[in-house]
Hints:
Layout: E1 2-6, E2 12-15, E3 21-23, E4 27-31, E5 34-36, E6 43-44, E7 57-60, E8 63-66, E9 80-81, E10 83-85, H1 86-90, E11 94-97, H2 102-122, H3 127-146, E12 154-157, E13 168-172, E14 179-184, E15 188-192
Antiparallel strand pairs: 1-2, 1-15, 3-4, 4-14, 5-10, 6-9, 7-8, 7-11, 11-12, 12-13, 13-14
Helix pairs in contact: 2-3
Amino acid sequence: xxxxxxxxxxxxxxxxxxxxxxxxxxxxxxxxxxxxxxxxxxxxxxxxxxxxxxxxxxxxxxxxxxxxxxxxxxxxxxxxxxxxxxxxxxxxxxxxxxxxxxxxxxxxxxxxxxxxxxxxxxxxxxxxxxxxxxxxxxxxxxxxxxxxxxxxxxxxxxxxxxxxxxxxxxxxxxxxxxxxxxxxxxxxxxxxx
Length: 193
């Protein structure tokens, strides 16, 4: 079996048990399933009262995490989720509640992709792989940002909740019912187990 780990945080994100479909040369799409949570297992992402200083924080599950982002996050209006997704459950992914619009997500994504490139250089990946990443990231960037649906898109981090590592975007197919995750191909390191 192959486990795919985030290049920045080292979190396990997905495995080859799921069918990874490469799209546009730079991202994987993975069909996933919604999983209902029994009432006694309900995850409340707004369990903590908001702090007086919420600048540079984002809520990951029920924890506020400091970030490098300038946007203020209001945690007072967090909703309770009675579902999760099979991949989130299998890899202990943490739901991220944020109020970013596409422009703000685009700014975050630019910083993230720059960090991925730096991590690739730090790990001494060959120049051809880094060039492939740069080319494919450019091609996928706009498609991923434009795929965000403010009402239905959901975001998850790896198990550590590192907001500067990969944010897994979950959208829905054209039928409006089939969820799928979007993962950045070059930001995943393969580990055979």
